[in-house]
Amino acid sequence: MTKKKLGPQPLLWPHPTTIVGSHVDGKPDFAAVAWTGVAASSPPAITIALQHHRYSLKGIYQNKTFSINIPSRDLVKEADYCGLVSGAKTDKVKDCGFKVFYGTLATAPLIEECPVNLELEVAHIINMGSHALVIGRVVETHVSEDCLTDGQPDINKVRPFIFTPGKYHAVGEAFADTFKIGKEIKGKG
Amino acid sequence: MTKKKLGPQPLLWPHPTTIVGSHVDGKPDFAAVAWTGVAASSPPAITIALQHHRYSLKGIYQNKTFSINIPSRDLVKEADYCGLVSGAKTDKVKDCGFKVFYGTLATAPLIEECPVNLELEVAHIINMGSHALVIGRVVETHVSEDCLTDGQPDINKVRPFIFTPGKYHAVGEAFADTFKIGKEIKGKG
Question: Domain containing B128 — which CATH number?
Fold first, then answer.
C-alpha cells in the first residue's frame, strides 16, 4: 500500500453536525459546529472548537454556559443555515422557526425540534490558534421521548447526521457488535 | 414534543472509530479510541479522551507523541480487538497482523492497513476526572493513495465507521451540500 503525505491536517472522520446555543447580549443565538469531541464520562464533558470571531463564542465568554443540540436529518437546512450566517446580523431563531426552551441553566438555550439537547457549563477555554477549544461539563441531557427505546436514546430514531467538507452524510447501517466482533481474533496470537 | 431528562451524559453522535498508537516502554501499542475531537485547523490539533488506566496512555506520557489511525470497515475486527484487550498482556501488532511504519516521529507508530494515519505531538494533557484529555498537534498526515480523489482524501474510499454503544455503524449516503442547502432559508426571515 502506497501512502501519500498531505502535511499536517485535522483529518478525523466522521463527526456529528451539531448546533451550539448561547446567550449573546441576553439573546439566544445558535451556531452550526462540526468540531466536537467527548472529553470524559464522569463527570461528563464535551469539547467544541470555535473560531475566535464566532458570535456564539462571545456568549460563551459572557455566561460560561452553552448548549449542544443534535439535529435530525429533517433539520439539515436549518443546521446549514446556522453555519452560513452570523447571529450578529440575523435572528436565526426567527429565520429557522426554532422553538427555544430552557432547562437547568438560564443562559443555555435549547432547540425543541432537535431530539437531543445538552446543557453545559464551561470548565476550560484553551486558545489553540485558529480556534478556541471550549471544554464544557454536561449539566443535563434532554431527549425527545419519541427518540427513546427502553428509556435509552436510540440513534435510529434520533437520526443524527455527519458533516464532511462538501457533503452531509447520513449514519449508515449497523454492521457489527462492539466489544464482541474482535473476540474472533482473540487467541489467534 | 415531550422531552425526557436523562441526567448529565456525554451524548454526542456519531463519532469515528479510531486506533491510537503509542510507544510503551519502547514497543508499539495500539488502543481503540471512540472519543476524539478536532480542536483547531491552524495549527491542526485533535483531542482524544483516555481512561487513566489505559496502557497506551503510559506511552503518551513517556514520549509526548502518539498516532491516530482511521480504520476502514474491513478492519472492524482488528479495531474492536484493540479495545477488548490491553497491550500490557498482549501483542496487538502480532495478533492483528498489523504492518507498522513510521513517519516524522520515531515514537508514533502508524498502521499501514489503516487508510488514514496522523502523527501527533502532545500540546496539553488535562485531567478531566474519569479520563485524561490529550490535545495533540498534528505533525503529518498519511493517506493511502488508493483512497484519494483528485489528491484529496475521499470518505467513500476510506470507508471509516462509527462507534456507538453496542454497534458499529457505516457512514451512510451523502444527502445534502454543506454551506449550500441552508441558503433555501436565507431571506425567509
Answer: 2.30.110.10
